[in-house]
Design a protein that fits this description.
Elements: H1 2-10, H2 15-40, H3 43-54, H4 61-67, H5 79-82, E1 94-102, E2 106-112, E3 120-125, H6 129-146, H7 154-170, H8 173-186, E4 193-194, E5 207-211, H9 221-224, H10 228-249, E6 251-253, E7 261-264, E8 273-276, E9 282-284, H11 287-302, H12 305-314, H13 324-337, E10 359-360, H14 361-364, H15 366-378, H16 388-406, E11 410-411, H17 414-421
Parallel strand pairs: 4-8
Antiparallel strand pairs: 1-2, 2-3, 3-5, 6-9, 7-8, 10-11
Helix pairs in contact: 1-2, 2-3, 2-4, 3-4, 3-6, 6-7, 10-16, 11-12, 11-13, 12-13, 13-15
């Protein structure tokens, strides 16, 4: 109602001041909308966070900016409340009432069990979340429509479907257990990564029990204080994991939140590892999508314009009858985002090259420059918003590149892409 009142009030504003008045009104209403989501908590917060990630091309910029301010961590619920979710079948499991962490849909507690030497933790879903999530999702989308922040059409339908699928996956603990098992098997012999052991006998549709892995986030001073060589290795581990996910496995963790990964620092300094902690947001990528993505990436790396266009058409980012300007805009963006994987430093901006000829991830400001280029591309006449799957990849890459930049990596990366070029 506030936005509608503001629109009506703008009719009484001088024409030369109307645009500024409406922009200020939109900013106020966006902040009010996000405040309401935060107060409602639970699934509403998660839905808002997902809209911030996937709605950037369909929602007004002030709305997505405001949605990005939603806190990932929320105050934990009292133990007596979350304990109602435990049910039967957890005999022998001792759970500490004080939570380790709390998020929008669940909270995590330390635990232990007889004859289990490993420390454990238990992820407990909040009461009622799974039962109300459909209504909560519908309510948020209706709010967006009433505010006239989204327009009906194929793109909105695709976004709604994508968000709904991801949201339901987040509360499907049986699925998360299966996906975690797949990752565990895929990485069993890879010393660069660690997947916690899960315990199905102490898990249910509302509870997940797993091994507790000690470690710190990438932003921790202990990680930031590692030698350049060790930070470079960790950065390559994260980049290699991305290529494995999208090219080799067709399984991708779509939530690049730093909290979903821990750095397990090796006291001997030989093998620092990345622990993968959350599998609720993992999406299965079909073969068609993976093949098209591979074609797009490898062609863009080779500067093969037609191959890149063919890949983008297969990804449904382009149409065969799109204008040359639209096609060139997408091709240029794909080539640009692969800048760190160039085989020679000649293709890098001067500020991104070290004296030793390595790529400076933090100083490169790659994501800032890519965001500007992407915004400019949207202004090209005939531009069509890419499908949610492609935006998912862009978001994933943003998270991976941010992780690498946070490590202040200084290295060449072309060899990571080379196996897929061959």
């Amino acid at each position: 109602m506030g936005l509608l009142s503001s629109k009506a009030a703008s009719l009484f504003v001088a024409p030369e001041n109307r645009a500024a008045f409406q922009a200020q009104a939109l900013q106020r209403e966006a902040e009010r909308f996000v405040q309401q989501l935060g107060e409602l908590k639970g699934a509403y917060v998660k839905i808002g966070q997902m809209l911030a990630l996937y709605g950037e091309h369909l929602l007004p910029r002030p709305v997505t900016d405001a949605l990005h301010t939603l806190e990932a961590n929320t105050p934990p619920l009292a133990w007596d409340t979350v304990a109602t979710q435990l049910g039967a079948g957890l005999e022998g499991l001792r759970i500490e009432p004080q939570p380790l962490a709390a998020a929008s849909l669940s909270q995590v507690h330390r635990a232990s069990a007889p004859r289990v030497r490993r420390p454990l933790c238990v992820k407990i879903q909040y009461p009622g979340i799974a039962d109300t999530i459909e209504d909560d999702f519908r309510n948020v989308m209706q709010m967006l429509s009433l505010a006239q922040w989204v327009k009906s059409g194929r793109q909105l339908q695709d976004l709604t479907k994508e968000l709904h699928t991801h949201l339901m996956s987040e509360v499907d603990y049986a699925r998360e257990l299966r996906v975690a098992g797949k990752f565990s098997r895929l990485l069993k012999s890879d010393a660069r990564y660690c997947v916690p052991a899960y315990y199905p006998k102490w898990s249910s549709d509302r509870v997940l029990t797993m091994e507790y892995l000690s470690g710190v986030e990438v932003t921790d001073p202990a990680v930031q204080g590692l030698s350049q060589a060790r930070r470079n290795r960790l950065a390559k581990h994260m980049l290699a994991l991305f290529f494995h996910e999208v090219f080799d496995w067709g399984l991708m963790q779509t939530d690049p939140n730093f909290g979903n990964y821990k750095i397990m620092i090796d006291p001997e300094g030989e093998n620092d590892r990345i622990a993968l902690l959350d599998f609720g947001a993992v999406q299965v990528l079909d073969n068609r999508f993976c093949k098209a993505l591979r074609t797009t990436i490898t062609s863009a790396h080779r500067r093969d314009r037609q191959g890149t266009i063919d890949g983008l058409i297969a990804l449904r980012c382009l149409r065969a009858d799109d204008s040359p300007a639209v096609k060139q805009s997408f091709v240029s963006f794909c080539e640009f985002i692969l800048e760190p994987f160039s085989q020679t430093a000649d293709e890098w901006p001067k500020h991104a090259v070290s004296d030793e000829g390595n790529y400076l991830w933090r100083q490169s400001k790659l994501l800032t420059r890519a965001g500007k280029r992407g915004s400019d591309g949207m202004l090209v006449k005939g531009f069509v918003v890419p499908p949610p799957e492609f935006m998912l990849i862009v978001r994933k890459l943003t998270g991976v590149f941010t992780f690498v930049s946070t490590l202040d990596a200084r290295m060449r990366c072309s060899e990571l892409l080379q196996p897929y070029l061959d």
